[in-house]
């Protein structure tokens, strides 16, 4: 019964229109895969030019989006809004991706077998990349650029609030693609932004080769329950900073402040601070002062040192605040810190501050996350910061790719085997 | 409604017993991940010794399995049956995996950013590997060896027919693991072999890090519909051999015979032969004679040259026969061959026979499969043949890994970032 109700919902949206966009992208992709790297690069540079040339049209569409948007928080409204500087950043982002070394055709590994067969493992595009995302229109340009650079077609499904902006941005990129003789259908935009449309999208088995869902828990739950296409999860970031007994406390204070407050609303911001008991007395009061208006929620030992800290409950260790709130816990040993992180980490980014090589080595070895950092802010776990040009998301799963996803994350590896009449005996 | 019925079925099997095996494996895995490579290697060598020492017990259990098995084809019965030689092969397979270079901790890539941050991408175990498989008890040993060598715990779920054999084999491997001071729980065996048990197994989200289902279309459909854990699909092999106009026809005949008949019941056997029209007159009659009793199903042009060929229907191009049957089609161009393969390939292994470099280059570039071969039999697409020691399956998906899966396929890559008080500005 449930299935047929669902089916009816899928039918009510125009599932065929969604499928048609993806089918067209799929049909166009072999031409892109066969195109030399310099043609893919030229397409991106032309797309950047078209984005700049479309500045007025993008701003006009974006103004309509912002005016029409209802029920947005001010942070959401800010993410939706474009201005000259953001459009220029978008164009520069596309150029940064074009400047990346070409991943298509890269030989990952190769060997010659005793029987003379020559084996090569070669990077190839995944095929058709699907992205479901929320309000930020710059994702449209970043995702398209990364997909095209790596020989993939892309099907974009942004939010309804950003639809007018996304149409104009997609149009500019498609014109850039067409200007070098490649099919516009390589950059598909799904205009149905309903939940049922999203569900139809994630069931395009055999048409979408990989889906990157970027959104909140509701979207991720729907993907886990409904997706029939392969998925790379861009999940939560419940990131920790652990200040070890051997930490340089000046570095520690700067790193905690940066990880928590430089941009609290993003997934690579820190949510929980763990402090070794041996340095808590000295470190926590000065940190509390430095963090100013940041709300602190501490365990009992923290509250004894920082009177302004509110009591932390069990839920605090699990929460990605995405806000200027920091949970704080005093631990007795490095092992306790690692055990806390093992239990509560969402597998995104985990940092230790220490001058002790053994502690750093143990932490990086035993903490299981997309990224582990020594004496550096979790905020560096970002495609642009790490040198990928941009990112289509940050994977928190272990399969296929972990961490910021640039062009290489959008490839697969094919075995190419050369013989001379070889048969198996 | 459907969900609650399903839930009731899951409850009828002892889902908690299945979960307990996986949870114990997960709890044990960090100890393995922290163990040095030489300890993992010692565990495998001890497991091989224990397998040899358990020869009588394995044979006795296997005799019971074979005697109790009902409704098996002779091929299935053969796959289930063990003898001295097969047990020795099993032990040697474990030793071959132990002899592989260690993948854990291998630095895949690394760079230093302009700000001085040092970035490394390092191979780490996936965590807990689950395998659902059918009658061949040697999979138990191969899969356990590959998982342990790459720092993973494993949970094995074989068929009911092989349960007694699998228990003894698992016991031998677990004793080897324990003999070097590692927990036996690293090698888990699920004794519930019901369909509902399989479904409970594939829903162990957060406990199983990757599931490799090895089985027929029914299992794969269940996995697509029901799995909540990440999956690597070991799918069908509808493999093609294309004999180009520039083929050396002696090599071509040997390769087609080997690809089709050396072992017809396996996924890397060829199912369809495509022959360029320019050489079909000469090649097909001699091939038909050479293939002897192999049934041929041809298009009209084939049948004009090979009277004994039966007429091929559209279904033949889609069928993985797993039997001494070969579909044959004459094509006018290399492009037509590539188009046929694009349409019908299951993405496993595709071969071209040609002396023409341009044709070989185009074929390897444009055919999208886990493996593409030039002048070599598709039968080489196998973990043992390619030098991986063994394989836990052959991936036909594009995400994470394609082709035979050895130890490297059972790893993820973690970013390790070293700084000196770095904060983002």
From TrEMBL, chains A, B:
Annotated catalysed reactions: L-glutamate 5-semialdehyde + phosphate + NADP(+) = L-glutamyl 5-phosphate + NADPH + H(+)
Pathway: Amino-acid biosynthesis; L-proline biosynthesis; L-glutamate 5-semialdehyde from L-glutamate: step 2/2
Localization: Cytoplasm
Start and end residues of each Aldehyde dehydrogenase domain: 7-295, 317-383
Known EC number: 1.2.1.41
PROSITE patterns xref list: PROA
One term under GO cellular component: cytoplasm
GO molecular function, one term: NADP binding
UniProt entry keywords in alphabetical sequence: Amino-acid biosynthesis, Cytoplasm, NADP, Oxidoreductase, Proline biosynthesis
Top-level enzyme category: oxidoreductase
Domain of life: Bacteria
Biological processes, Gene Ontology terms: L-proline biosynthetic process
Function: Catalyzes the NADPH-dependent reduction of L-glutamate 5-phosphate into L-glutamate 5-semialdehyde and phosphate. The product spontaneously undergoes cyclization to form 1-pyrroline-5-carboxylate.
Family membership noted in the UniProt record: Belongs to the gamma-glutamyl phosphate reductase family.
PANTHER family (alphabetical): DELTA-1-PYRROLINE-5-CARBOXYLATE SYNTHASE, GLUTAMATE SEMIALDEHYDE DEHYDROGENASE
Protein name: Gamma-glutamyl phosphate reductase
Gene: proA
